[in-house]
């Protein structure tokens, strides 16, 4: 014993006394009745993967015995994985000598834990069983293990480990300390019974549970010949803590023989192993708490060890007297190791973990505080230019956003992060993105939101929607969204949805969190991966279809339906789902019906996704009935209520099917007339979309477990519609939107593997792992940059000042029924107010020849455009947002609006009847004399 141990012995004496009741080893508490052994019957069991970890050529012949024992099982395993721990020579030799065995290099930290994590990540089976490379399984080992998994509450099964002594058991070696050589010891149950933890040489788990728990800790367990352990105990504690109703079973009938070399039969090894076990147990106590870490050891100390000492001292006892000194020295060494382990903390790692945890906890409130400071200081919205909010938001906002990304990455890296932290970060991101315009803008954002408010107002005023209203006639044929808002406004006592429409982006995105989490739980049981996918979804959702609109509402219902269906799909480790409950069926039916009557595109996307999901035979029992219901409802609605609209636009719909190349490029390539800033914005959203699809595709390639989920089908289901119709130039972006719930999780699975653990490697390996760990926040910050450009880069167009709104409202109030409203575009508030009573002309939608005539001779061309038909009041409205839109998109020839205002400045037939700081309203009078002034 060195000097350090003697110094720590005195300081740890009190600790040793306090924890004298907490002796080390694996134990159990209860015993149940024995069951009959299973027979090798038809393969109705879950699939099984056996993982064997090896790290040295010195055990080559024992390794061959271990592999052969698995290959000769009465109930063969579905696959055998041999994970070689950083020994290339052993890997090459095993690949040549072991056909039918998949040989993998340890892809994680060096040691047994890293090797086991590598095996779990690569396994295809529902159940993963672990066998040491110096152990051999009995012929019925796999069958005995799998029998217990008929009970869905069983999370894992461990078995008996019999010692196979190379030189015979030493007379002084007590059976109660067989755990020293990795074997089952006196005191474990003799029949099948629940236990706290297993012995590593013979254990199995449901693979999904190991993944969800985060795998084995690589800072525990054996590395090379270092005799530390307890990584199995710590994992079992985490698995049990996540599943309060589950249980871990010890099945002594599932037995293996564990080779014990002569080097492990010495007293020096015995004491060293006991001391190391104390250190290991102290580490487990730091992670899981002393209570769970020492629960079984109390029973071991109170009953097993006293009985062993009494038996050794009793004349004629089964245990020889020579075992008593070993019992005492073993207890002493273990307690000493525990005391030293509790006092000797890994300073560097503890400080790093403390800093990580502090960042995870403090970054969230700090980011929100910076966001509030941004709002309180104010933002000069009038300074917005070609890049919108991106160029006027202060450094406090961007600092808070970056801090949010770093804090969330820290929360993902900290195993102790709570669900409320993940929830807080996701909601904070939604707040940063969608509450900022709400707090800064004096008026409702986005002209289309104003349009949908106007449609709802018409329904509130007249009780119906006009079917002869030009492009707005579509809302009369899919009125579900407006019906619901009419019902809500009426029963709440409001006068218009305009009172809450500004809040819609914030509310709709917050509501999306719940179905997204539900969907992602069908892809993985890893909590950090599920929340990482949700965070990445909102980090990549640049399309902007979250304003007050039928699309936003229908998309929310789409995700709800997909999540509800995916939740019932058969998954590895889960029994085949039974018949859906009546409540589930009713809710899904209502959601589909609401989608069908609210939006023309979303039912098409939903049906396509469901039909693709039904291609795997295992999914059809759940998906096909839902798909047929959706198809029947959509067909019935299109054949009745929506039939007039479809017949009127049938030519365009059919024409779209014949020009797939133009459909795919529509909205993607048309940047010729845009300003340089808007070209940058367009490329930001395109690159962001491509990166998300690329990451998702790579994730499916490198993570086989994702291929057995609904993710690949949901990611590719919207793609065919990109060539089916241009949808007004927006189809390519809608395809990205509907694929995003799946592709965002795929990207998260690539960036955030569930078994990411701290590395203890050296040199280049350690550097590469550090680069990989640093890449996640860097990628997230880069995504934030692209998202900010794509989402906020058009705000100079979407933002309306109070004076613009005032002028538009004045026109909407004073224009008599039957008026003609003319504007550079429809990008102004109240553009469609009382749309059933007025006609409208937007210069940005006029023929190119007419646009150039407006540029050349504005007064004359306006009279030409407005002079047809019977005489009626005509008005021209020009405002700041219109000019920003036509300039940014190139919708009108450059300088058209400036020339228009100049040409009309002194004309008596274009009197200004209302003017504000950012808008002007002209009355268009009949032309008195050609070219007169």
TrEMBL record:
<feature type="transmembrane region" description="Helical">
    <location>
        <begin position="397"/>
        <end position="413"/>
    </location>
</feature>
<dbReference type="InterPro" id="IPR001173">
    <property type="entry name" value="Glyco_trans_2-like"/>
</dbReference>
<dbReference type="InterPro" id="IPR050834">
    <property type="entry name" value="Glycosyltransf_2"/>
</dbReference>
<feature type="transmembrane region" description="Helical">
    <location>
        <begin position="551"/>
        <end position="570"/>
    </location>
</feature>
<feature type="transmembrane region" description="Helical">
    <location>
        <begin position="422"/>
        <end position="441"/>
    </location>
</feature>
<dbReference type="InterPro" id="IPR029044">
    <property type="entry name" value="Nucleotide-diphossugar_trans"/>
</dbReference>
<feature type="transmembrane region" description="Helical">
    <location>
        <begin position="731"/>
        <end position="752"/>
    </location>
</feature>
<feature type="transmembrane region" description="Helical">
    <location>
        <begin position="355"/>
        <end position="377"/>
    </location>
</feature>
<feature type="transmembrane region" description="Helical">
    <location>
        <begin position="324"/>
        <end position="343"/>
    </location>
</feature>
<keyword id="KW-0812">Transmembrane</keyword>
<feature type="transmembrane region" description="Helical">
    <location>
        <begin position="773"/>
        <end position="793"/>
    </location>
</feature>
<feature type="transmembrane region" description="Helical">
    <location>
        <begin position="500"/>
        <end position="520"/>
    </location>
</feature>
<protein>
    <submittedName>
        <fullName>Glycosyltransferase</fullName>
    </submittedName>
</protein>
<feature type="domain" description="Glycosyltransferase 2-like">
    <location>
        <begin position="49"/>
        <end position="207"/>
    </location>
</feature>
<feature type="transmembrane region" description="Helical">
    <location>
        <begin position="622"/>
        <end position="640"/>
    </location>
</feature>
<keyword id="KW-0472">Membrane</keyword>
<dbReference type="Pfam" id="PF00535">
    <property type="entry name" value="Glycos_transf_2"/>
</dbReference>
<feature type="transmembrane region" description="Helical">
    <location>
        <begin position="687"/>
        <end position="706"/>
    </location>
</feature>
<feature type="transmembrane region" description="Helical">
    <location>
        <begin position="582"/>
        <end position="602"/>
    </location>
</feature>
<keyword id="KW-1133">Transmembrane helix</keyword>
């Amino acid at each position: 014993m060195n000097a350090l141990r003697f110094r720590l012995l005195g300081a740890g004496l009190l600790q040793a006394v306090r924890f004298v009741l907490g002796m080390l080893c694996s134990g159990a508490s209860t015993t149940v009745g024995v069951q009959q052994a299973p027979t090798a019957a038809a393969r109705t069991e879950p699939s099984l993967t056996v993982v064997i970890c090896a790290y040295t050529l010195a055990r080559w012949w024992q390794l061959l015995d271990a592999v052969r024992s698995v290959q000769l099982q009465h109930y063969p395993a579905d696959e055998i994985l041999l994970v070689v721990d950083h020994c290339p020579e052993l890997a090459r030799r095993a690949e040549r000598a072991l056909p039918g065995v998949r040989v993998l290099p340890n892809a994680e930290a060096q040691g047994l834990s890293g090797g086991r994590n590598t095996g779990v990540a690569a396994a295809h089976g529902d159940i993963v069983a672990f066998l040491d490379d110096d152990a051999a399984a009995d012929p019925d080992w796999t069958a005995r293990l799998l029998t217990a998994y008929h009970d869905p509450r069983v999370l894992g099964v461990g078995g008996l480990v019999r010692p196979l002594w190379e030189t015979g058991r030493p007379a002084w070696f007590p059976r109660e300390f067989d755990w020293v050589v990795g074997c089952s010891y006196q005191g474990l149950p003799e029949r099948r019974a629940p236990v706290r933890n297993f012995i590593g040489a013979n254990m199995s788990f449901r693979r999904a549970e190991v993944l969800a728990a985060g795998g084995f800790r690589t800072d525990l367990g054996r590395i090379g010949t270092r005799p530390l352990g307890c990584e199995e105990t710590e994992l079992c504690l985490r698995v049990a803590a996540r599943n309060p109703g589950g249980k871990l079973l010890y099945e002594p009938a599932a037995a293996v023989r564990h080779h014990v070399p002569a080097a492990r039969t010495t007293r020096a090894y015995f004491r060293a192993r006991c001391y190391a076990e104390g250190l290991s147990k102290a580490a487990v106590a730091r992670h899981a708490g002393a209570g769970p870490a020492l629960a079984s050891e109390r029973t071991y100390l109170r009953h097993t060890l006293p009985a062993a000492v009494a038996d050794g001292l009793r004349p004629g006892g089964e245990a020889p007297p020579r075992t008593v000194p070993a019992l005492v020295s073993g207890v002493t060494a273990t307690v000493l190791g525990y005391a030293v382990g509790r006092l000797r903390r890994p300073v560097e790692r503890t400080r790093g973990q403390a800093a990580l945890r502090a960042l995870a906890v403090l970054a969230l409130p700090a980011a929100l505080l910076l966001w509030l400071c941004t709002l309180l200081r104010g933002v000069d919205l009038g300074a917005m230019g070609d890049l919108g909010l991106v160029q006027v938001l202060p450094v406090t906002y961007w600092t808070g956003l970056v801090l949010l990304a770093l804090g969330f990455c820290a929360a993902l890296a900290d195993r102790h992060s709570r669900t409320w932290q993940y929830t807080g970060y996701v909601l904070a991101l939604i707040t940063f993105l969608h509450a900022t315009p709400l707090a800064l803008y004096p008026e409702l954002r986005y002209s289309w939101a104003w349009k949908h408010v106007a449609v709802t107002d018409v329904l509130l005023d007249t009780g119906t929607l006009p079917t002869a209203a030009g492009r707005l006639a579509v809302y009369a044929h899919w009125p579900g969204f407006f019906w619901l808002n009419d019902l809500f406004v009426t029963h709440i006592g409001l006068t218009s949805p305009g009172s809450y429409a500004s809040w819609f982006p914030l509310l709709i995105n917050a509501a999306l969190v719940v179905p997204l989490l539900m969907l992602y739980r069908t892809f993985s049981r890893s909590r950090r991966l599920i929340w990482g996918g949700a965070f990445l979804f909102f980090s990549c959702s640049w399309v902007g279809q979250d304003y007050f609109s039928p699309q936003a509402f229908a998309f929310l219902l789409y995700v709800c339906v997909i999540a509800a269906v995916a939740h019932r799909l058969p998954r590895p480790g889960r029994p085949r789902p039974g018949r859906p409950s009546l409540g589930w069926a009713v809710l899904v039916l209502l959601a589909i019906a609401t989608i069908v009557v609210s939006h023309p595109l979303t039912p098409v996307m939903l049906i396509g996704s469901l039909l693709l999901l039904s291609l795997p035979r295992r999914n059809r029992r759940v998906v096909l009935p839902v798909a047929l219901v959706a198809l029947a409802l959509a067909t019935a609605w299109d054949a009745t209520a929506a039939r007039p609209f479809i017949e009127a636009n049938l030519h365009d719909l059919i024409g779209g099917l014949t020009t797939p190349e133009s459909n795919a490029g529509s909205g993607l390539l048309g940047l010729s007339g845009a300003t340089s800033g808007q070209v940058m914005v367009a490329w930001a959203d395109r690159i962001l979309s491509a990166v998300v699809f690329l990451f998702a595709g790579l994730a499916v390639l490198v993570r086989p477990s994702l291929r057995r989920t609904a993710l690949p089908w949901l990611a590719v289901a919207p793609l065919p519609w990109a060539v089916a119709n241009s949808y007004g130039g927006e189809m390519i972006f809608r395809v990205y939107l509907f694929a995003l719930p799946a592709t965002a999780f795929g990207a998260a699975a690539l960036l955030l593997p569930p078994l990411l653990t701290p590395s203890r490697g050296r040199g280049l390996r350690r550097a590469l792992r550090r680069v990989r760990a640093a890449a996640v926040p860097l990628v997230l910050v880069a995504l934030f940059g692209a998202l900010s450009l794509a989402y906020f880069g058009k705000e100079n167009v979407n933002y309306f000042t109070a004076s613009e709104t005032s002028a538009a409202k004045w026109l909407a109030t004073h224009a008599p029924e039957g008026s003609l409203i003319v504007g550079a575009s429809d990008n102004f508030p109240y553009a469609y107010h009382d749309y059933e009573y007025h006609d409208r002309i937007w210069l940005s939608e006029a023929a190119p020849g007419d646009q150039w005539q407006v540029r050349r001779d504005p007064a004359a061309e306006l009279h030409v455009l407005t002079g047809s038909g019977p005489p009626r009041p005509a008005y021209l409205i020009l405002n700041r947002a219109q000019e920003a839109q036509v300039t940014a998109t190139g919708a009108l020839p450059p300088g058209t609006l400036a020339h228009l205002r100049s040409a009309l400045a002194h004309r008596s037939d274009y009197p200004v009847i209302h003017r504000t700081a950012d808008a002007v309203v002209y009355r268009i009078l009949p032309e008195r004399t050609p070219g007169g002034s």
